[in-house]
From TrEMBL:
Protein name stated in the entry: PotD/PotF family extracellular solute-binding protein
InterPro entries (UniProt xref): SBP, Sperm_putr-bd
Organism: Paenibacillus farraposensis
UniProt subcellular location: Periplasm
Membrane-spanning parts: 7-25
Amino acid sequence: MKSLVRVFLSIFIISFSLMGVAAWLNSSQGYSGGNTLTVYNWGDYIDPELLERFQKETGITVIYQTFDSNEAMLTKIEQGGTSFDVAVPSEYALAKMKQEHLLLPLDHSKLPNLKHVDAHFLNLSFDPNNEYSVPYFWGTVGIVFNPELTKGIDFHSWDGLWNPKLRNNLLLVDGAREIMGMSLNSLHYSLNDTNKAHLQQALAKLEKLAPNVKAVVGDEIKMLLANEEAAAGVVWSGDASEIMDQNDKLDYIVPNEGSNLWFDNMVIPKTATHVDAAHKFINFMMQPDVAAQNAEFVGYSTPNKDGKKLLPADISGDERFYPPSEITDKLEVYDNLGKRMLAQYNELFLQFKMHLK
């Protein structure tokens, strides 16, 4: 009996020692304690130099993790396995997170740099009074095209994509809201339309587009368009900027019928364990010089009015990415359509993709 007790006591001592070593290692690597911050963001969506600068200025170690879709981000936060301190959802995902009580309200007294954000991008429908979020980047959905390969096609209208000259020469981003929304807009419907007859019309029109579609793809769309593997593509404006940096023969346009005005936003998930550090990080990212550096690195449009002034004129004055009001007035933010309607959008988009085969 005594030998058995000694065995259990030895196991307990070893286990306790191992736990202590693990805790020390985590602490030494910045994975625990009050001077740590876990940020959950899209891939390639921040200038790494800014993370280093934030750490140097605050002494807070940043653990940076990435996701590739709002749905993946939502699932991980809902599961609660990791305590993310800052996340960057798009507006419709943010609305869903609010609905499911997954966010902490922001303390605006800890965000003095909010004054640098353009008022046009504050107090929007998906987060009145910015109770839970501040905008990180914004942009549009439009068409990247090669003028040399698309002569005679007018992309001022979405209908240009249906031109027979584009046969097997069009790439589409793999997003149900984007492609269904584009088809709805081409029919002069809202990209948040929930009328089943209108959605069926949008699907039928997409099916007529099938002969022109070379592929429906993800991130590789940037490389394919830059390498002139297709004459045109439907993409987000930030991707368009990156594509055009690689190939200056290409151009980008938002069609006149309207399109999506999207926002990615900084929020603090309810499971955050370093709330004060999260506020410091969000406030840091709203410094004008930081916002400008980040926008120049990432290629997306900054909502920071004072940061925009610090950008080179060829960026801040580019109306393709900072469009005038006559364009932005026609743009729509994605509404949170609810699980049932979102499932219907996804099902119709899947039907379209199956029609391509």
